[in-house]
Amino acid sequence: MQNNDLPEENWSMFKCSIVHKCESLKSANELLAALQVCYATDENYPPDETTLPLNTDKQKRSALKRKESFLYNSVDMDVAEMQAGNSRVQYPKLRMFENVASPIANSTQLDSSPSTSEDKNLTAQIYTLLLKVSASISELNTNMKLVLSRFTDRQDPRQFDCGLSSQQFPLSSEEELGTLDACLEQKDVRDRFMAMLTRLMDDDPKTSMRYILSYITKPEVAINFTLLGTSSKRAIQKCRFYDCVRSALTNRFLSSSINEKDLAKLYDMATQSYFHDMRDRVQKRHRRNKEHVQSSVFKDITNSQELFDSP
């Protein structure tokens, strides 16, 4: 193509201008291959085996001949110029929050971040860990309250705080029992009272009922009550503390083998037998006290007579 029509010093510039006028990298490569084939037979421009087309027989490797008057006499330089002029520059994209920021291509959006699934897994693990920590703290708080309550029970096991007042079990009068019933209207007091009753139970509902009633009331107070009430005695079924006792026992012993009706019958029998036993105990105590008083009086009379009979 050169054909000695152009001077040697302008040939390189002409060649570069042709390369840069190409519309695409592919067309430039095709033109470069054609030019190499054209001047491959010229003695002044021996071909380079790295730049020949694939279907061209490669010659033996020899040193490139360069002319001092040419600044761009190398095919490698031409290819580098062409690639530098047509290549695209890639800039890294940075994901900031939900938007995609890039110095040049800031309109490009990524479908999803590569670490999205890992972030979700990490968030789930952290959430599960927080739930476990919260459950452990709640359990520790409950255990600490239980330990403190047991410590209080050991110091004064029969002391019960009703909020505005404090009751000392067993109760010694009907007025104290009325105060306890009034305090049990408050939910927090009722819950603590139910918890105390649960600690007093054993494995049998009848014996548990009898023990709880003896824990709460003294015999002198119990003899003023019956299960259903009479003309001279009050009905314990109308007392709020007795409803709490029955509810606590039901929560403890109700199961598939024992229904609620059977438990109610057991409670009634245990309550009636307890009041009967308390009445007998009080009567026996009064009888013993009376006999003791009579014996004391008789002894005093005998002693006084001996004093008068003595000389």
Automatic annotation (TrEMBL):
Record-annotated DUF4806 domain positions: 165-245
Pfam families: DUF4806
Classification via InterPro entries: DUF4806
Stated name of the protein: PrA2 protein
Origin species: Schistosoma mansoni
